[in-house]
Specification:
There is one protein chain. By secondary structure, this protein is α+β, with helices and mostly antiparallel strands. Helix content is about 25%, strand content about 35%. It has one domain: Aminopeptidase, CATH 3.40.630. An eight-stranded mixed β-sheet has the order 1-2-3-4-5-6-8-7, sandwiched between helices. The longest helix is centred in the middle third of the chain and has 16 residues. Bound molecules: coenzyme A. Coenzyme A (COA) binds next to strand 5, helix 3 and helix 4.
C-alpha cells in the first residue's frame, strides 16, 4: 500500500483509510470497550485537527476492526494509539497499521518509531517485540491507574532502516 493511503483494500477484504471525523463514533466506542482509561472524543478530534497520521481498518461488512494514531516531528514518529477489536486480534491488523506507519517514516526520511506501553500490558509488549521493537527505557508514573495511582510506561522503539516484516503489507 502507499505510505499515506487514501483507501487501500488488502487481500483479506479489509479497508484501510485515513481516520475521518465520521468514523469517530465507532472509534470512541471501541476505545471505551478496550481501555480502562480511554482517549476521549476530543483527543481524537484534536489529533485529526493537528494532521496527525491516523488510519482505520474496516471489515467487508463495514465494521470497525482497528485504528491507530501517530504524531511526527523533529525527525521522529511517535505511535500514540493502536487498538484492534478483541474479536479481530492475532490476524495481522496491528502489523498492517504499523506497516503503513513504517512506510510513512520511510517516505518522510524518519529513522525511528517510538511508543510507550503500560508496564502491565505484556501482550502489547510481546507484539511489539515480535515486530522488531526494542525496549529503550521506562517512564515512571506515565499513565493514570486505578484509585488515583500511576503506572510506569515501557518505552520502545523501532529503527526504520532495519525494520523487516512489514514490506508485504506496504
Ligand atoms: C496489541 C494489539 C494492538 C496487537 O494487535 P493484533 O492485530 O492482534 O496484532 P497482530 O495480529 O498484527 O500481531 C503482530 C505480531 O505480534 C504477535 N502477537 C500479537 N499478539 C500477541 C500476544 N498477545 N502475545 C505474543 N505475540 C503476539 C503476532 O503473533 C504477530 O506475529 P506473526 O504475524 O508473526 O504471527 C492488540 O492486542 C490490542 O489492540 N490490544 C489492546 C489495546 C492495546 O494494548 N494497544 C496497545 C497499547 S500501547
Amino acid at each position: 500500500m502507499s505510505a499515506n493511503p487514501k483507501a487501500a483494500t488488502s487481500g483479506l477484504g479489509v479497508l484501510m483509510r485515513p481516520m475521518s471525523l465520521a468514523a469517530l463514533d465507532g472509534v470512541v466506542a471501541l476505545e471505551a470497550e478496550v481501555y480502562p482509561f480511554p482517549w476521549t472524543r476530543g483527543n481524537f478530534v484534536d489529533s485529526l485537527a493537528a494532521g496527525y497520521p491516523a488510519w482505520t481498518l474496516n471489515g467487508s461488512g463495514g465494521e470497525l476492526i482497528a485504528y491507530c494514531v501517530a504524531m511526527h516531528g523533529a525527525g521522529e514518529m511517535h505511535l500514540l494509539n493502536i487498538t484492534v477489536a478483541p474479536v479481530a486480534r492475532r490476524r495481522g491488523h496491528a502489523r498492517r497499521l504499523l506497516g503503513a506507519l513504517v512506510a510513512l517514516c520511510r517516505e518522510k526520511g524518519i529513522d525511528r518509531l517510538w511508543l510507550e506501553v503500560r508496564l502491565a500490558n505484556v501482550e502489547a509488549q510481546a507484539t511489539y517485540r515480535h515486530l522488531g521493537f526494542e525496549q529503550v527505557g521506562v517512564r515512571k508514573g506515565y499513565y493514570p491507574a486505578p484509585a488515583g495511582s500511576r503506572e510506569d510506561a515501557v518505552v520502545m522503539s523501532l529503527g526504520i532502516d532495519a525494520a523487516r516484516g512489514f514490506d508485504a503489507m506496504e
